[in-house]
Write a structure and sequence with these properties.
Elements (H helix, E strand, L loop, with lengths): L11 E3 L4 H9 L6 E2 L14 H19 L4 E11 L2 E3 L5 H11 L3 E11 L5 E12 L4 H10 L19 E5 L2 H5 L3 H10 L5
Parallel strand pairs: 1-2, 1-3
Antiparallel strand pairs: 3-4, 3-5, 5-6, 6-7
């Protein structure tokens, strides 16, 4: 996709293809002018902690798109689901999804979402938010049901809190929207702080 014109310094680019992030922004009255996903290597560096991974990837995504669109606000985000120090990425198949759900069953895990914003003047803001989610103990039939729903596909940790998996959540400590994919209060504050007109 070609770079956005430089005649309007108030344009906002969402550097993510996630429909959930777009929906969350719209929920608080923000509609990006364009969506340009960043193509970066998301491989975890050896020894990198979950929070560090989310933060690094969000910054890389924002920087990649801002280089080509220097006169726009660029908003990027990355979400990492971690059980202890183990990172649960997007499950590649049903077997891996089943493994992830079995691991999360009856346990607490952390969801880290990093947000990176680069403004037209080159100023930038970064924030990484942690939410702790507790799953009830899952019966094998419940895992089977969820796997068959296909809702796990494309989701970090193999679940979507805003969907059927809500029935598995016994408690949340922190931002709900953070688990969906974008901590809204923090994101809005970052945009306001950098002069984006809300």
């Amino acid at each position: 996709m070609s770079a956005i014109g430089t005649d309007n310094h108030q344009k906002l680019i969402l550097a993510s293809a996630s429909p959930r992030r777009l929906d969350l922004l719209r929920q608080v009255g923000i509609t990006p002018d364009d969506i340009i996903p960043a193509a970066i290597d998301e491989t975890q560096i050896a020894g990198e902690k979950p929070r560090e991974l989310a933060t690094r990837l969000a910054k890389l995504k924002a920087g990649e798109i801002a280089k080509k669109n220097p006169d726009c606000f660029v908003l990027a985000s990355d979400t990492v689901v971690a059980c202890g120090r183990r990172i649960l990425e997007k499950a590649r198949d049903q077997n891996e999804a089943r493994q992830f759900l079995s691991l999360l069953s009856g346990r607490r895990h952390n969801v880290y979402t990093a947000v990176s914003l680069i403004a037209p003047d080159g100023g930038n803001s970064h924030r990484t938010v942690k939410t702790t989610v507790t799953f009830k103990r899952l019966e094998s039939a419940e895992i089977d049901f969820y796997i068959k729903s296909d809702e796990w596909r494309g989701k970090a940790g193999a679940y979507a809190i805003q969907g059927l998996a809500a029935r598995f959540i016994s408690s949340i400590n922190g931002s709900y929207s953070n688990v969906v994919g974008l901590p809204l209060m923090e994101t809005v504050n970052m945009l306001k702080g950098r002069g984006y007109p809300l």
